[in-house]
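Let us practice reading a record.
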Amino acid sequence: MCLLDRVLQWDDAAIACAATSHTATDNPLRSTGRLGIAAGIEYAAQAMAVHGALLAARQPSGGHGYLASVRDVRWQVARLDDLDAPLRVRAQRLSGNDAYVMYEFDLQAAGRTLLEGRATVMLSAAPGFEAQ
């Protein structure tokens, strides 16, 4: 399930992506005919994953990551599917090492912040990592 349409810009510290899938009636995250704002966390997680893949293409790490936690999440709207404007999904790396990466993220539409928060991604390339 790929929710993002394209990467707008990226560097070692951050990524910005665009998405229009929030308006699709067949969006797999819809529930009871609507797409709640909490689904925005998945959009942000996908931006973080793309950022990790782009960085790994330059310096392969051999591992994958998983979303371990989200914190300080704040939203300004109840749902995403009633917004006509494309989403701008941004993730900014705050810190990290071989075991984890911390990001700050936000979703915007038409210049308005819809959702923001922080996330921790645990990396499977970390020594001692065992998938369950």
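A brief commentary: The CA atoms of residues 34 and 43 lie 16 Å apart.
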